[in-house]
Each structure stands twice: as structure tokens, then as C-alpha cells.
Amino acid sequence: MKRHTHSACTSIMVGRKASIDGSSYIARNEDNFFAIWPKKFYIQKAMINDGKVYTSANNNFSLPLPKKAYRYSTSPDANPVEGLYEEDGINEKNVGMSATESVTANEKVLAYDPLVEDGIAEDSITTVVLPYIDSAREGVERLGEIISKYGSAESNGIEFFDEKEIWYMEVATGHQWVAIRIPDDCYVVAANQIGIEDIDFTDTNNYLWSDGIDEFVEKYQLNPDFNRWDFRHIFGTNTKKDRHYNTPRVWYGQKTLNPSIEQDPESSELPFLRKAEKKISVEDIQSILSSHYNETQFDPLGSGSEEDKKRYRAISLSRTENSHILQLRHNNSKNQAIEWKALGVPSFSPYVPFFTNANTIDESYGYAPEKLDLKSAYWLYETLNMVVESHYSDFVELNLDYQKELSSWARRRIFEVDEQAQKLSGSKLTDYLTEQNRQIAEHFNKETKVHLDDLITKGAELSKLTFKMDPNL
Questions:
Q1: Closest CA to 196 of 171, 224, 225
Q2: Using one digit for the tens of pLDDT, what is the confidence trace for 57-76?
Q3: Do 285 and 325 contact (CB within 8 A), yes or no?
Q4: Which residues carry out catalysis?
Q5: Beta carbons within 10 angstroms of residue 226's beta carbon
Q6: Is the entire prediction scored with pTM above 0.70?
Q7: Span between the terminal Cα atoms of the chain, in Å
Q8: Contact by Cβ (8 Å): 99, 112
Q9: Are strands 88-90 and 96-102 parallel, antiparallel or unpaired?
Q10: Among candidates 383, 297, 305, which has minimal Cα distance to 348?
Q11: If I label 276, which of 87, 115, 117, 445 is the partner at 20 to 30 A Cα–Cα?
Q12: What are the boundaries of each domain within the chain?
């Protein structure tokens, strides 16, 4: 298998009773090994496969596909040399998924069930699951069946949601996995570490698992606890890397939503499920995904000591390529699903809302060449990211004002679209939402270019090659 470049992400899930507007959310930052790795975003049309066999460009994993594939939104690599890595999307049945949150299993469990080199991996998961499922639970079951037959090449966490439920699945070894239904009144922050805790094998409404996983654990004497079956304790890791790379991100997300609770950022026992101290908005999720330990001594862009600024891996990185928030609005029967997309570094890029009941997104999102071209949404936002960070102290407030204005505009526009959408149905509704996607992208692209022009103009005055003549010379 080729080197896995998509290996570091942060995920957030929010139940409908935990959110301010009754929506369900699944969200994630897709982080890469490289700072520049162009991504596309478009609508994949429904199709009939007729015996088509899928084969991965990454590791030659292969399987026959079901006959009918639903329409879905997708965010693949622009150059699929290592595989498609479609990552996230919502299909025409309003079933969404985000894949994957890379995790690591410990050496004890891998000794008895190693990863399978030509098994399913992140590059393939969305492609062979999302177009073929009618519910979140079906997503877990389909992926579980694939792993049972072909094995898994990686340890991964996968998010699913539908009109009723959110499910989170963690694949630990070549064939062993569990999944949990996220309670409606809870949220989760996951960060490259196995997080699911206790599994109740008598409750199939809220837990799913690979066949024979309890017998596997018993046979090889893998459970370190006396009176519980904790997936994190049995299959997960507890290392120095976890304490500096993974757990601090969970700590910061929970600190944001539960500010009154004092926790250790290096604790290995941060709870997987949390109830927030206030109702969670889409802006709260955006804030967490775009964060870098803001207002703490650990902020790499802050005023802490050099040691503290380098102590923990932040949520938003220079190598974040695609930050997405999938929103399912249960109080809107005509226009339920929105995918919020921030390309590049979400600290500096706005989240753009797109309706997934559409034929297309916008041509600027489907165009992502290898070299810089501001006609491409990916390159437009990567350019903005570079300019803002290059003069961070001078530009950060201007950038935050730009993001705030676009965030307000997005809320107003969604409200206006919803009012009109109530009068439409079928293909007329889909066509209308398709045109709204184009107009939304056009507005964000235009405002971003205005912002970029302003920053470059101001930046020219900040050059260190400025010289003022001393009149006394």
C-alpha cells in the first residue's frame, strides 16, 4: 500500500437535542501530510453500475458494486494518484457520512488480528458505502460486512447520520470494530484516537459490533478491566504521542462547550460522550474546527512561551485541506440537508453553505489544478490563508471581520432560500437549489477576492524593505 497521506483529522458530532436549532451535525477537518493537496467538491450523479467492479488506486482493494448508486455530494482529491479519498457527503436519501478519523490500535490486539494490506481503506470507504445506503445504521452494517469479507487496511473512525440517528463507528484491527448511536442530547469530539468506551452487548438499538468481538477479547485475554468492557481500554492506545497529538484537541473542544469543567489536556480518560452547557450552533462547530488553542498559552500564533506554543497539535492546521460540517435540519421537510465547506485552513477560510439536493455545486469547486489559479475555490482560499498568516498580527482582525460578515450573510441567505423552497418540489426544487449553490459560491468568491485585494494592498506597506530618510543626514 502507498503512503497514507490523509492521516490526521478532528471530528465533531452533535445530536439534534444538543443543537440550538434541532439539527443533527457530523463534521470533520480533513488533514493531510502536505500543506498543499488540492481538493474538489461536486455532486456525483446517480447511476446504474451494471456489474461494475470498484478497484482502489491505493492498494488494489476491489469489490463488485451494487447495481444502483444514489446521487451524493463528494470531496475527492483533485489528483487521485493515491485513490479517490471522497471523504464526506450527503446522498439523495439525506444520509450523510464522513470518513475517516484515523486512529491507532494497540500492539496487543493487532498481534491477533493484524490489518489487511489489501483491505478497505480511507480512500475507498465513502465511494463504496455512501451511494448505497438508506440510513446511518445501514452505513455501519454495509461497512461492517465489507470488513468481515475483505478486512480493513487501517484503523479508522467513521461518522454517519440520517433523519433519525447519528452513528460513530471505530474500526480497530483487520476485522474488529464497534459502533455507537450518539444520544440526541450529546456531542462528541474525536481526535485520532480510539474513543468509544463501554459497549452494552444486550443493547442492539444503540450499539453494533463485529461478529465475535467479545469472544476475540476473551480468547486472547485482552480486557484490562475487572468489571467493564471498554473498547478504548481494550483496543486503544495511551502513549506520549496521544497526550501531545490527540487528547489536547478533545480537551479544547470540550473546554469550549463545557467551560466550567476543569480537565487535564493530557488526560487519557476524557469522556467520549458529553452534554454541553448550552445549545450548540453551527458557528460553535465552526469555531472549534477553526481553532488553534485560541486564548490559551498553547496557541502557536499566540503569546505563550515557545515551548508551550509547540506543546500540542492544534485542530486547525496549515495542512487542513477540507473542513466540512454536514447539517440535517429536522424542522425543514423541503430542504433538509446543507453541507458547509471551508477549503484550506479553516482558521482563515469562511464556511460556505451548499444545498445537497442539487445537480451541481459550482464550477469553481470542481476545478482544482495542480498549480495556483484563482478561478479555483481551493486555490483562492489557500492563497487567502497564506496571505493572512504571513502578517497574522496585522491581518487577523480584518480576516475575522470578513468571516463574520459572510457568516451573517449565509444565515440570511439560507432563511430566504428556505422560504422560497417551501413553494417548490421535485425537479423544480432541485433546480432552484442548484442555482442557489451557484449564487452562494459566486458571492463568497467575490467577497474573498475583495478581501484578498485589500490584504495585499495593506501588506505592501508592511515590507521591511521600507526606508525613511533621516532629515539630519
A1: 171
A2: 999 999 999 999 999 999 99
A3: yes
A4: 9
A5: 5
A6: yes
A7: 67
A8: no
A9: antiparallel
A10: 383
A11: 87
A12: 8-362
